[in-house]
Inverse folding.
């Protein structure tokens, strides 16, 4: 493994890059000026861990603001859930992007957060109010951020909220509906996740054919739905209860299957996520 010397990477952080074949790994180190600074870094680590911010956030421009906002909101569950979402968006989706300040977070950054990243981390819940809560918390955060650092994103977020509200609520309802079709006993007291995973695996293994991807709904007919794999642009016709609840344009992340290779129509077999059509431009296949 090749190992170059440490180099300065701003704000007293030092960067070292390791190479193993085509794999590159970066490591940052920080030298404390004294015990008080060490104490402050540990304090920030403790606070940021409460909303699962990765350690690298401490050396990025957004770390101090997210930590400060966490201190402001305290133990507010909805605010903490929001911080987890925006923190993961920054650390997971902008690893290699040269964002250096909140002013660099242009409208596409917020659009991707709302229409793509949030649906990606949406979870199943009886209340089905995550979308409404998320958009409300985002607006509160933006007002605070604009005042704190001098940005002016409030009007942008307000417009995106208007455009996204109905779409995200629908995606959340559809996600819960599809998940309950596959796991109808999830809310029972004796529900066992390990047993359920085994049952789901056995069900998928019994299929003659399975294909997983992200599909966009093109047309909805009485007996079947026409969907397109947005990766290879191939069309599929699927049958089942989806015809009763699905809207054209929606994106479905999951899998379709056939019990017999000779079957003409496919069936929806696995749900991993639901996105508004607007998320499509931010989805990349590796």
């Amino acid at each position: 493994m090749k190992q170059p010397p440490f180099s300065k990477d701003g704000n007293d952080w030092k960067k070292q890059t390791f190479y193993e074949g085509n794999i590159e790994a970066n490591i940052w180190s920080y030298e404390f000026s004294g015990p008080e600074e060490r104490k402050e870094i540990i304090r920030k680590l403790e606070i940021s861990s409460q909303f699962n911010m990765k350690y690298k956030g401490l050396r990025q421009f957004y770390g101090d603001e997210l930590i400060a906002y966490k201190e402001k909101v305290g133990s507010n569950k909805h605010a903490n859930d929001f911080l987890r979402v925006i923190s993961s968006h920054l650390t997971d989706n902008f690893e290699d992007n040269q964002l250096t300040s909140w002013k660099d977070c242009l409208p596409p950054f917020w659009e991707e957060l709302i229409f793509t990243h949030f649906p990606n981390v949406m979870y199943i819940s009886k209340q089905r109010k995550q979308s409404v809560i998320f958009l409300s918390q985002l607006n509160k955060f933006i007002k605070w951020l604009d005042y704190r650092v001098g940005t002016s994103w409030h009007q942008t977020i307000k417009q995106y909220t208007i455009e996204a509200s109905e779409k995200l609520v629908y995606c959340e309802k559809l996600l819960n509906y599809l998940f309950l079709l596959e796991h109808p006993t999830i809310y029972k007291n004796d529900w066992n996740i390990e047993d359920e995973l085994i049952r789901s695996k056995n069900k998928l293994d019994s299929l003659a054919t399975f294909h997983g991807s992200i599909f966009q709904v093109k047309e909805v007919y009485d007996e079947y739905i026409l969907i397109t794999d947005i990766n290879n642009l191939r069309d599929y016709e699927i049958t089942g209860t989806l015809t009763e609840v699905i809207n054209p344009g929606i994106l479905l992340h999951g899998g379709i299957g056939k019990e017999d290779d000779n079957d003409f129509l496919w069936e929806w077999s696995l749900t991993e996520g639901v996105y508004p059509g607007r998320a499509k431009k931010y989805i990349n296949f590796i």
